Protein 1
Amino acid sequence: MTIIEDAVPAPRGAGEDQTPLLEVRNLHVEFHTREGVAKAVNGVNYTVRPGETLAVLGESGSGKSVTAQAIMGILDMPPARIPQGEILFRGQDMLKMSGEERRKLRGAEIAMIFQDALSSLNPVLTVGYQLGEMFRVHRGMSRKQAKAKAIELMDRVKIPAAAARVNDYPHQFSGGMRQRIMIAMALALEPDLIIADEPTTALDVTVQAQVMDLLAELKNEFNMGLILITHDLGVVADVADKIAVMYAGRIVETAPVRELYKSPAHPYTRGLLDSIPRLDQKGQELYAIKGLPPNLLRIPDGCAFNPRCPKAQDVCRTDTPKLAQLTGDEGRELVGRGSACHFWKETLNG
Amino acid sequence: MGRFVVRRVLQAIPVLIGVTFLIYCLVFLLPGDPIRALMGEKQDPHLALVLRARYHLDDPLVLQYWHYISGVFRGDLGTTYTGRSISDIVAQRFPITLKLALTAFGFEAVIGILAGILSALKRGKFLDNVVFIATLFLISIPVFVLGNVLQLELGVKFKLTPVAGIEDGWPASYVLPGLVLAATSMAYIARLTRTSMIESVRSDYVRTAIAKGLPRRRVIGVHALRNSLIPVVTFLGMDLGSLMGGAIITERVFNLPGIGGQLAQSVSLREGPVVVGLVTLLILIYLVANLVVDVLYAVLDPRIRYE
């Protein structure tokens, strides 16, 4: 068993040999609150290459969104603090950049799509203004040019009658259309990396598929890296290349998307997969992982998942397992697979 | 929007009639006889009868009111018991009150909103505490105390402003009274702006604006500010009305011959038509200010639409 420092390389997808677009190294984020220090992210490592989609999976409070906000540089500091770690964007540590340097990256090189488009768009400004603002601020365009660009973008994300709707306000659009506008805003300056934080959670199932398809299509067109944050295993399957599962601020399993579904190597991942409702089990009680996610002020010793884990042993309560490279038959490395479980072998084999 | 405005103007008519009637009744119910008060020591029963007849003082309340209101609709506000036209009084005194109220309004809007924004942006820091204590001070201190102290310090000791009166015209004579009149509302505006600003700075759309890489100035000035001003504008609009009517003490302290002083004097002389006339005017201002607020509301927040 070897300990791997960085996230496992991508098994397939574009640009495998290129240097990573984004590399998160040993990132820690904590929040200083009145009750104490909440450790939201505790040593996360992952990489995203150009054209690659990384899905980050986890329950609320697992640190997936906080990691994304740290990458974006939109954490409120204080109360948040980044005591250690590096976030390398094209090899440069963004945490060492000045505020102004980071601002210029935001929106232009790294863009973010938020969950609830209605509250994430400004209610008192037209969508055309909010889209055009990207061009006016980052590209120095005039109002008129920016508006033309806004219409072009709305066309691109397939909003019908874009030219007629450019002066409408966010509340005049449907949920799906609003999320398209969020996507258009993120794509405006053709960034290299997009972080989508639960982009479809607030939408109807049929609209979810449309929005995900659109996102995937545009991502391929521009060969962008995509970090897709979600708790919805269904969304991930079609779009992602690889998955990182987070629990209590740590990555507990990484795997190419198909292999994770086929043979999870962490009891938590297994629990997540088992809790998807299935038609062939209609009438039976739904599976749920027992217990609640840990309080981030008091993360349990050892493996953070141990109080909820059906396989927990004494060692799980004392030793924190590291993300280990998985090996298959005859000690062959399983490419791209890692698990932070003392008993990953047993879990992997059912 | 046009229809909305027309409907609101029509709605104002019954409000106006109802309120004037109410005020008329209240003045009618005041104890004492205006004619006797007018004659003082030399009572003349014959003259008293003539005057009582001229001012319909022995008619029933409803008839008296009818005489009054039908005059108002003909554009005649009536006369005082000394024979002065009430329209003249209004024309002479109203501009002074208006100037005072608008000066105060300017102070409370500009200083209040700026203090609120700064306080919100520096939350928990030194400046925030300074604003907090200053607003607490302004809210707690009575107007006449603040007025007299400022008069003494700035007017008498340092001779920076006129002490009282309106000889120096606008702005010199109105700066100090304007500040005093604005004091309490200014403090409320500052606090309201602060709360509302903090709320919108925390909102999702401001987070989006930051994620778009907009400069901080733009995030605050364009994205946070417009949303947080919606409740502030409401308060300001409502307050314009009370600044006009509530200037009685300030006008007294600074000896400004405005509506407030006249109103106080007329109440003590039981001059019903004057009181009703002035109050009607103030109510009109209230109604107009309210309408302006409602229209502004829709301009600031496109989610609000009036049919």
Note: The CA atoms of residues 22 and 162 of chain A lie 34 Å apart.
Protein 2
Amino acid sequence: MEYTKERIGNVSTVTLILVLILVLIAVMIVAISIGVVNIPFEKVWGVVSYNVVHTLTGIEIGDPNLYAKGATYDIVWNIRSPRVFLAAVVGMSLALAGVVMQATVQNPLADPYILGMSSGASLGATFCIATGAAALGGMVLGRFTLAFFAFIGAFISAMAVLALSSAGGRTTSVKLVLSGTIISSLFGAFSNLIIVTAADAEEIQELTYWMLGSFASAQWYKIVVPAIALAICIIYFTTQCRHLNTILMGDEVATTLGIDLSKKRKIYVIMTALLTACAVCFCGVIGFVGLMIPHIVRAITGNNHWKLMPLSVLVGGVFMVLADIAARTVLGGAELPIGIITAVCGAPIFAYIMIKKTYSFA
Amino acid sequence: MIDLDSVAIAINKKMIVEDVVMNAEEGQFVGIIGPNGSGKSTLLKAVYRVLKPTHGAIFIDGTDIRQCTLKESALKTAVVPQHSYSSFDFKVKDIVLMGRSPHKKSMEFDNETDLNIADECLEKVGMTDFADRNFSSLSGGEQQRIVLARALAQQTKCMVLDEPTNHLDVKYQLQLMDVVKSLGVTVLSALHDLNIAAEYCDKLYMMKGGHVYTYGTPEEVLTAENIKKVYDVDAVVEENPHTGRLSITYISDRTKRMRAAKE
């Protein structure tokens, strides 16, 4: 199974990865060009490539007066790009977290939120928005306040699940899933308690929008943390493909093939929890992507993580950028929460994949 | 090669296995027999480190297994567990290649050598034509042979098998046992078929209620008296004129009643 020789259908895996990277870039350019004012693709490409290279390396690949000034520059780089880049990063993060979580709990129906992170993040956000913690925290944390509370909520829930599942013996996949359900309902109840007792109508609306997810408030500063988390996780989990494959064979088999499952599970859960929390805390709980994307890709590549993981990550990015285009164009001027789009687009695709016979989980 | 020193195993504070001393010399084929619930599988699970003994120690190749990482253990001992269920499907070839995992660093891809080893192992179990099939599309017996091929791909000095001939047709029972026997590695295997045990094992441990009831050569262990005491079944043990091995014939209560009625 030399990587370059490994094939999916008639195409080598590496070719497919390269093609998908190009597709992702193309989709992002299209997404940036679409808006109230449509901007030609070549202008978008010029501005984005100039600024990406300039930000990362300091090298100027063109005329700064053309690419780093003026109305086009403002719209492309300061207004639209952050949103599209954030969508791509979050899409990739959720897809990666989904792939890893499905292997970690050996359940093809797992998603990044299975450890209660969505309800944890929601509780954090609710606490922040509805109790006046925002004003207090805002003095210290400034614009990161809401994200901070959501992150803490998500991370606390994941750690609570991990602690609960390893109490009284080793962590098994069933205990992880059950603990996730327990913590989810508990945190959900706390959120509802705060909403019922403390929130006014405006705060409830704000929360509803937050919980369904949106990239509308994307800014460059919001991308840094999720992007770093994504980069670290991609590097780490690429080294874990072999183990992830083996874990899918079940606890006993993985153990006899030399994998310390208890330890690996804890590391994987902590890494995916961080990754998911970083994604969720800036743009709310976007459902379905982390469950659906790995599934769709699985139907094409099979369960081998050497293929499944890179392709899921890229497809996740492409899908989220497309979904975000829909979110801001379908209603004309108004914004639709992206969670609605991901579910509405995802459900039929998912149903088709499930009915298709080549589907590869037994 | 494999040594168990007064091993006891409790699950949920209930003693399943107690005070078991067992030994398999290098190259020996050692069988563990005994009725359902006698602790065979539990004992083997401790050997392949899914369970931890509550007392005693297990040595493989002279080293206490607690001193080894799981990866080191996987390089010494390959396991064919009783049945493995997974909700995820893989190509047969990929499953056999998983047997190469303990030999690999985490970022290392399988190379030509690994592929050749996997092919050889598939050939040994007679499953070459199934390499590109999905594991889930195979019958229980075929799956068992693939799992054996995966264990072979580990290329270890010891093998632990838990009732490996379950689900297999007669032909493949014999084929599987022949393959394992021909490897010349140290084997510790739970077996439910006493005729198979008599045919292939150099040494047998007969278990009852979590203890070793008796052990020795098949001739010493497989007597009508022991079978009656441990399995509560009447049997006739004789030398099979065709094989020169022991042959065990069970006599059911129904047969006994019918005989009594005739007389």
Note: The two ends of chain A are 23 Å apart (CA to CA).
